[in-house]
Amino acid sequence: MSGIRKADRAGLAIAAGLALIAAVILIDASRLELTSTYGVGPKMMPIVVALGIAILAVGNFVMALRGDVAKPESADLRPIVLILGGLAAVIALIGMGGGVIAAIAVLFAMTSAAFGRRALITDAAIGAGLGLLIFLLFDKLLTLSLPAGPIERLM
Amino acid sequence: MDTLLALAHGLTVAVQPTNLFFALIGVLLGTAVGVLPGIGPALTVALLLPVTYKLDPGGSLIMFAGIYYGGMYGGSTTAILINTPGESASMATALEGNKMAKAGRAGPALATAAIGSFVAGTIATLGLTFLAPRLVDVAVRFGPEDYFALMCVAFVTVSATFGASPVRGLTSLFIGLALGVVGIDKLTGQARLAFGVAELLDGVEVTTLAVGLFAIGEALYVASRRHHGEEKLEPVRGSLWMTKQDWKRSWMPWLRGTLFGFPIGALPAGGAEIPTFLSYSTERRLTKFPEEFGKGAIEGVAGPEAANNASAAGTLVPLLTLGLPTSATAAMMLAGFQQYGLNPGPLLFAEKPELVWGLIASLYIANIMLLILNLPLVGLWVRLLAIPQPWLYAGILVFAVTGTVAAKPSVVELSMLTIFGLMGFLMRRYDFPVAPVVVGLILGPVAESQLRRALSISLGDPMVLLQSPISATLLAIAAIALIAPFVMKGLRRFQADDD
Description:
Oligomer: heterodimer
Strand content of chain A: under 5%
Low-confidence stretches of chain A: none
Shape of chain A: flat
Helix content of chain A: 55-70%
Strand content of chain B: under 5%
Number of strands of chain A: 0
Shape of chain B: globular
Radius of gyration of chain A: 24 Å
């Protein structure tokens, strides 16, 4: 029993994560005070769900010990970081009032880069054009408002 | 006779120009997303939900159904030409279809898929037309405890039959159920699992979850394994038309595929994967040309394609009559109904017959549109596959983010989208099925409120669940469906030890 394989460690991590979620749900449910006069109150569902997740945590733990875990092929980390970075940039831009067009431009460029393109400026320009098109479509045609920044307010 | 009258009335609704237009947009979009690898019909409906919020409910739902049917047609094109199934229901088609394309018989493969889809889709829609009113008659008698029991059946079958392992399927389901608990409890007004975040009081948006899991999760997954090499597109060479021999070998598989697809889709057994693989193995056993299987046998394309279209129509039976989604796309369509305050079920048939029957009638029209779109125009769709992969996925992510922002322009919502995306990626990577999460989020709160209603009517006596014969039967089915996979697995291990 020397050295746990990598996939097994992933299985153990999943089991631990599930146990943690179950605990969080139980603690949250214990804080509910009001209940119904008849039948079951608001605590029933969270408790049932938490118990289910706790049992499944054990199930996943057993499977991890047995090595009954999916063994994924190697994954490339760089594109994942690029896409998540793009999404983080979107959150920051929308949060600080940068507007949806700039956010789309950044996301488009970073996702394209994640899929192997090396033309960041061109892709950002395409993304900005796409963003403008989407903004006009939503704002004028579908009358759905998108978060506006300095660029959007010019229109 | 009543059914035919209702259908005729539905047809007058469906042929109204605006509804025809919605159906056309639906089938065009559906075929496009079916062809494009990486986006399926479930994601497309999810992306469109916030956009269609202000449109006419009848038209939008007709469009969603068109997307569902179109996705099933389009998926076969990708499966045949690049061996990358556009959606999981086309995996069986890829087995023989891609071999046929490599042998220069892409044309007949595409033709038998399209015509088989049309035949199966039309027969299965007929099945839906005549089965739905019968089921509605039964469903009218359902009390809250029966609905709760029915949800339990759906939970078990959706999670235990999807994917490779019941434990992983149930894990996915319970994550969905946990997400369904988030928000204000409707009966007592207390916040659950909101952790003081105001945006969480309304609960988790179904669209945010679905878009995160399907769009962002999928993009991360594909990007992370790009270095494993790309798939090659087979050109469509030679005649598109089927020979007399092809027709002779196709028609029986079409009918058999329909017979697998429709009932399995209609039972809450979940997904189109099971009937397509059943159809594939049956055709393989019954064929007069066993030597061709594995090298491009037309039966292996005709059967599974028919099965997957028939199952799409089958899925609409429990969705429309009971409000029970058994596939990811059906779950998103249910969310579509809910966004207009409509609850599919017997009441909807009674209160809004023009909407329900207009939707059913439009399915016949959608099938005819799809046959035309997919046979003579297949070359156009193949061009879609020439879109560079970076731009395709960048575009998908842009639409995912825009849809979320349009529904709820908040940093919290976008953060949730990102977290769900990461979750979807990890689930794909470690082989946890994604659909049960969505079904759990949508049906969890419904099941809870039905159970609490049943128990408050019975003054808290849980025996009410066993006293209703319908509920008792359904709960027994759920229990068997839950235990069976574990027992079977145990038996198999036992036998393996014996050998």
